[in-house]
Amino acid sequence: MKPDRLIDIASLEAALQKFADDRDWSQYHSPKNLAMALTGEVGELVEIFQWLTEAQSKDVARDPNTAQAVRDELADVFIYLVRLSSVLGVDLNAAVVAKLAANARRYPAGESSSSRGSPR
Amino acid sequence: MKPDRLIDIASLEAALQKFADDRDWSQYHSPKNLAMALTGEVGELVEIFQWLTEAQSKDVARDPNTAQAVRDELADVFIYLVRLSSVLGVDLNAAVVAKLAANARRYPAGESSSSRGSPR
Amino acid sequence: MKPDRLIDIASLEAALQKFADDRDWSQYHSPKNLAMALTGEVGELVEIFQWLTEAQSKDVARDPNTAQAVRDELADVFIYLVRLSSVLGVDLNAAVVAKLAANARRYPAGESSSSRGSPR
Amino acid sequence: MKPDRLIDIASLEAALQKFADDRDWSQYHSPKNLAMALTGEVGELVEIFQWLTEAQSKDVARDPNTAQAVRDELADVFIYLVRLSSVLGVDLNAAVVAKLAANARRYPAGESSSSRGSPR
User: Fold this and answer.
1) Is some CB atom of chain A closer than 8 A to the CB atom of D47?
2) Rounded to an integer, what distance in angstroms lies between the CA atom of residue B82 and that of residue B91?
3) Which of A35, A51, A118 sits opposite C51 (nearest CB)?
4) Do the Cβ atoms of C96 and D79 come closer than 8 Å?
5) Which of A15, A72, B58, C20 has the most CB atoms around it within 10 Å of its CB?
6) H-type alpha helices, chain D
7) Residues 21-40 of chain C whose Cβ lies under 8 A from any Cβ of chain A
8) Residues of B in contact with A76 (CB under 8 A)
């Protein structure tokens, strides 16, 4: 977890900025609105899984009935999350690196699961 | 939108796999469970914005009272989303590239906003 | 499903209106904000279930570790939902009665589950 | 806030139980699954509001383009919430009464908003 570069999303951030600018959509892209849009997309993603058992959920991306939908919804969530971080001016890589370091301190490897709170 | 490489999350995927393995958490990481964990984190992110005006929401990452929380919640959402894609075996870069291409066809640049459905 | 009175929430609507008025909170209670608050509370509710198996989830209200939390989160979701309907001027009983009638037409009793889409 | 009967949902609980039994759906209605279904419906509700200003959001139930959708989504959220409480065996009225009493203690009327945390 040491590396300080775990993700690279700069090209996507630029593509999303251009996409919004080309359509005059930046006026709608307040962080508040984008957080709501993120919620909506997560809701669509969750709907794919809601009636499946945990075992069934593992096959969702291979099942011809759900493979395309799950890819689309994962992409939509990703796109809004990156767009939200971007308009907020948050360096998502730095935030992720810091959070993983905090998680590593909070949940040391090798301790028994039962002595901890919720697993991550 | 032409490049076929918009994001690079391979290092994070590997780090999350190792993190889970080191704690024996992979047993909990069914797609169904991870989709729920993603929901929970999005809920925490939304709570930061819920009583703010759109204008106020733009300053969230600069306000000392919320800057750390918003970075943490964005990171948590990102981490669970990448972990979910990973256990599903979905190539998130390919999914994002395909979705942006579909969005570009669906919402051509230059058309007036009022003639379309919801902006993105 | 025939009765036209399935729920009665008038007393709660009045109590929530008074509660908001007494604290000068109605200014924050736009439908947009309340929809976000609802999201946040649903996220907290989901977090109780995210790492549990379906079987374990059935005992959540009897487990001393989770019984109070699940009651509190269910109540929070209910409160925000009723408040949201109230500020929108929606008659929630009429909406529920109409939706159940529509569901009964869409999913006739006695048809095999496999011939339908997602169960409800 | 004194009355110990703020809501009456018994008829709806019975109707939902019968609806599920008639379709053999109770097997799908674990609390975990219902919590996910609730998430999905809240996501659909939020999508109605995501690009609207707070002022615009107040007219959603009167706008012919959104009035039916908002009633349907409010009803769906309500239905799943009541069904979830029901299968958990939670007395939702008691939970709501207790939560409002706790809120009244936590946020006394008459104190200035700025001296408190998030408004409710």
Assistant:
1) yes
2) 10
3) A118
4) yes
5) A15
6) 10-22, 31-49, 54-57, 67-88, 92-106
7) 32, 35-36, 39
8) 99
- Nearest-neighbour CA in chain B from D33: distance (Å): 9
Query: Which chains lie within 8 Å of chain D at 3 or more CB pairs, if any?
Result: A, B, C
Residues of A in contact with B52 (CB under 8 A): 32
Residue in the structure block whose two tokens are 């930061």: B48
Q: What is the pTM of this model?
A: 0.95
User: A110, exposed or middle or buried, with CB in 10 Å at 0-12, 13-18, 19+?
Assistant: exposed
Length of chain C, in residues: 120
Tell me the C-alpha distance between D107 and D117, whole Å.
9
C-alpha span between B32 and B85 (Å, rounded) = 12
Q: How far is CA C18 from CA C15, C25, C28, C38, D94, in A?
A: 5, 10, 14, 19, 19
- Beta-carbon contacts of residue B75 (< 8 Å; ≥ 6 apart): A92, A95, A96, A98, A99, A100
C-chain residue closest to A46, CA distance: C46
CB-based contacts of D54, cutoff 8 Å, min separation 6: B53, B54, C30, C31, C32, C33
Residues in A touching C57 (Cβ below 8 Å): none
Query: Å from B40 to nearest chain C CA?
Result: 4
CB-based contact B45 A24, cutoff 8 Å: no
| D68, amino acid identity | Q
**Residue labelled with tokens 């058992």:** A53
- Of B71, B69, B13, the closest CA to residue A6 belongs to B13
Beta pairing partners, A8: B8
Q: Do B99 and A76 touch (CB under 8 A)?
A: yes
Burial readout D97-119 (b: 16 or more C-beta within 10 A, e: otherwise)? bbbbeebeeebeeeeeeeeeeeb
Residue partners of B87: CB distance under 8 A and separation at least 6:
A58, B29, B30, B31, B34
For residue B33, give the nearest of C33, C37, C50 by CB distance. C50
Angstrom distance (rounded) from CA B86 to CA C120: 29
Walk along chain B (120 residues) and give the pLDDT tens digit of each residue: 445 899 999 999 999 999 999 999 999 999 999 999 999 999 999 999 999 999 999 999 999 999 999 999 999 999 999 999 999 999 999 999 999 999 999 999 976 554 445 566
- CB-CB contact of A79 with A25 (8 Å): no
